[in-house]
Structure formats: structure tokens, C-alpha cells
Design a protein that fits this description.
elongated; alpha+beta; single chain
Length: about 100
């Protein structure tokens, strides 16, 4: 998995980079064929915002999150991405096995 991390109106510290990489590695266990992951961290007044786009073999997943703390924002972002990836994985499994929805 190739992670591209960028900051908007903020500097990306090594601790933040490591935290994002650890959290994104958690998502790789659900899906094979994860290509690029693009993560943008930004600060807008008092709000810490994070957004990510994951390009996979069978589609693309996007999520964003806002919180008072950047680490909390990243946690919420990863939770959203995790739910979306599992939902997409279930759709693909149902489609291939012919199970009626």
C-alpha cells in the first residue's frame, strides 16, 4: 500500500505520519489489491480535518472527518473508511456468489 500524505495549512510531523501509516495499515487487512492511498490533513480555524481516498482493484473509497483534535479526526476517518470497505467487499462477495439481496 502506497500512502501519500499531505498537509494543508499545517506541517506533517513524523509522529503524525507514523500514526496515519499505522491506522491505514489496519485497513489493508480487509482488502487485497489496495493501490494508492491519498490522505490530506488540514486545519480550518479551530477544526482539525482529515480526508482520504483509497484506490482499490474494485473501485475507489472516499471519506472525510472533522474533530477538535487531529488524532481524533484520523481515528474517525479510519472508522468510516473501514465501514465503507467492508460494505463494498460484501457487495462484491454477494455479486460473485449469486446470493439474492
Amino acid at each position: 500500500m502506497q500512502i501519500q500524505l499531505s498537509g494543508h495549512h499545517m506541517d506533517i510531523t513524523p509522529a503524525l505520519r507514523q500514526y496515519v501509516e499505522e491506522k491505514m495499515d489496519r485497513l489493508a487487512r480487509h482488502v487485497e489489491g489496495v493501490g494508492k492511498v491519498h490522505v490530506v490533513l488540514s486545519v480550518e480555524k479551530q477544526r482539525q480535518r482529515s480526508e482520504a481516498t483509497i484506490h482499490m482493484q474494485r473501485g475507489t473509497v472516499f471519506a472525510d472527518s472533522e474533530a477538535e483534535d487531529m488524532y481524533a479526526s484520523i481515528d474517525a476517518l479510519v472508522d468510516k473508511l473501514d465501514r465503507q470497505i467492508l460494505k463494498q467487499k460484501e457487495k462484491n462477495t454477494d455479486y460473485r456468489s449469486g446470493v439474492a439481496r
